[in-house]
């Protein structure tokens, strides 16, 4: 499968994004690393819950099929090389989020009524 993939796909058609010689193991490794890194974020954090759900779903798809085109179709988020790029980007963001700690209380309390909005109806002005 790996050798025929190289013969079948010479380019991604996307500038700056080369064909990956062995994408499935790369994706599995990236998804497993993401799930492992998420364990250092509190389970109650919305970021962890969201990324864990998406990553676990994608990992199941990749592990269940050797066929790269089937993986691309089921995930429906671009070519496998784009999926690899997305997974790498998520790992980079995850490191930043761990430093930002958005699940912790704010250092300065939010102003009263910060998230309340009032709308007035301006008749005739659009």
UniProtKB/TrEMBL annotation:
Membrane topology per record: Peripheral membrane protein
Primary site of residence: mitochondrion
Keyword Membrane: yes
Coiled coil: 70-97
Localization of this protein: Mitochondrion inner membrane
Keywords: Coiled coil, Electron transport, Membrane, Mitochondrion, Mitochondrion inner membrane, Respiratory chain, Transport
Pfam families in alphabetical order: ETC_C1_NDUFA5
Key word Metal-binding present: no
InterPro entries: NDUFA5
GO biological process: respiratory electron transport chain
One GO cellular component term: mitochondrial inner membrane
Family label: Belongs to the complex I NDUFA5 subunit family.
Protein name: NADH2 dehydrogenase
